[in-house]
Amino acid sequence: MESGFRSTDWQQLTFAVVGMGLIGGSYAKALRRLGVKKIIGVDTDGKVLRQAQEQAVIDEALCGAGPGLQAADVVICSVYPAATLDFVKSAVPFLKSDVLITDATGIKGSLPEDVQRLLTGRMEFIAGHPMAGRQGSGFGMSQAEIFDGANYIVVPAAFNSSGAIEWVSSFAGAIGCGQVVQVDAVEHDRIIAYTSNLPHALAVALINSASYNENTKYFIAGSFRDGTRVADINPYLWSDLFLANRENVLQELAAFSQQLERWREALTAADAQALQEMMREAAIKRKDLY
Amino acid sequence: MESGFRSTDWQQLTFAVVGMGLIGGSYAKALRRLGVKKIIGVDTDGKVLRQAQEQAVIDEALCGAGPGLQAADVVICSVYPAATLDFVKSAVPFLKSDVLITDATGIKGSLPEDVQRLLTGRMEFIAGHPMAGRQGSGFGMSQAEIFDGANYIVVPAAFNSSGAIEWVSSFAGAIGCGQVVQVDAVEHDRIIAYTSNLPHALAVALINSASYNENTKYFIAGSFRDGTRVADINPYLWSDLFLANRENVLQELAAFSQQLERWREALTAADAQALQEMMREAAIKRKDLY
């Protein structure tokens, strides 16, 4: 068994979770379920910290960077992309010299390099992205189960040690995730634009259609329910994510619009074969996914 | 307690379910759960009839219209739109003089009038549309539970008796449906284009995007899973439904494209406020739905 932050002896490790929102709260609950040594919750919102402490989700509460972070072997940043940088900058003086920092940010860009640049000594940042979430936002909506079976993307940068990459991969499995995959930041952002950003945009667009009215709810079935499930998301966080990835998302919107154009053409031409072909293609792909 | 087909004494009624597919099979299973007197399954596929009989989902099997239909107080047509007309035409000579016929067709058009025109005596057709379904197709995918809590649309025509309207509304509740609403056929088709046809088209378009590849599955989260759930549908049935409703669906595609255009503009202009506004609007509407 290794010592220090590369240990996977979870019961011996102290974690700091920065941001007690939907994802951060879920991390804390998953860590509790995993039985780690100690969970430090960090948030600027004292109310949410009290709530997390009262529910025994965290052992200690910090309203920001401070000496209390010294105990953390691992820091998980679950805050807005820009806030990760700010937090790490203020936290560095208090952190263990071999601390491992990871994140859950839905868009990477230059974040890994930017964070690592702030670190000193043997501190290391390794980017991660649990493909987990649910509608809503905030600590009240958090739950350990969001990780169960979810994909977990590890996004190593050139500076990362193999130990850190292995640690975060094991960690993903330990909190319940299924498939763990590795891609670089550029590829991550490109793929995520399709598999996450686009479906969120479509859900928002579907429910925002001019055809929606107060009677819509009496006529919806599963297709509408599922197609709009993620329309209820945190507008501030997601506008950040969308803007940080906007070139990729614009490309995905264009690729998607080409498919809508296929629909428009097939319907205009009353082309049953073209419609069936699109649906057969989709059915095969969907079956391949699950 | 009334006698004849307007009775809601379910245990005394014999039902014929025409089409043992996903929806017809689910009706038969829901009727079994309801404890009706007898269930006659009708299908051209002898294998599926045997299967339904072996599983005790139906009491009697008919491979088409014939004297066996005489016992039916109620006939539920769960076949392709065009097949409903064909079946009723061939069945009329065998049906009870006061039989009630209903359907589950996802598009109405002139179907109610067309079917009623074939009927004689006190036979009555009342159109219905359970907003229930699931991925896949065929008897093997059927289950009584698809009706539980689902909306049920009753589509009365000018010729319908209040007794028939009331009966089908009670019946919807009896098999587990939640909200039962009434609209005429024109309105039904217009609304369904938005609440059902469009989400299915979007799901197919999302998974058919040029960005999809064999690695997509490792990067998907709930938003992609939910957004593509109904991409796996029966291509033949659904091309019929889409074509029969194509004017309405084309309008919905146009209305949806306007929303995508809002996304494109907001992203191009890097307009955080516009993005947040769209998401706030969507979140409010989504919360109002459920």
From TrEMBL, chains A, B:
GO terms for biological process: tyrosine biosynthetic process. The keyword Transferase does not apply. It holds the Pfam family PDH_N. InterPro entries: 6-PGluconate_DH-like_C_sf, NAD(P)-bd_dom_sf, PDH_C, PDH_N, Preph/Arog_dehydrog, Prephen_DH. Keywords: Coiled coil, Oxidoreductase. GO terms for molecular function: NAD+ binding; prephenate dehydrogenase (NAD+) activity; prephenate dehydrogenase (NADP+) activity. Residues 246-273 form a coiled coil. Belongs to the prephenate/arogenate dehydrogenase family. This is Prephenate dehydrogenase. The lineage of its organism: Bacteria, Bacillati, Bacillota, Negativicutes, Acidaminococcales.
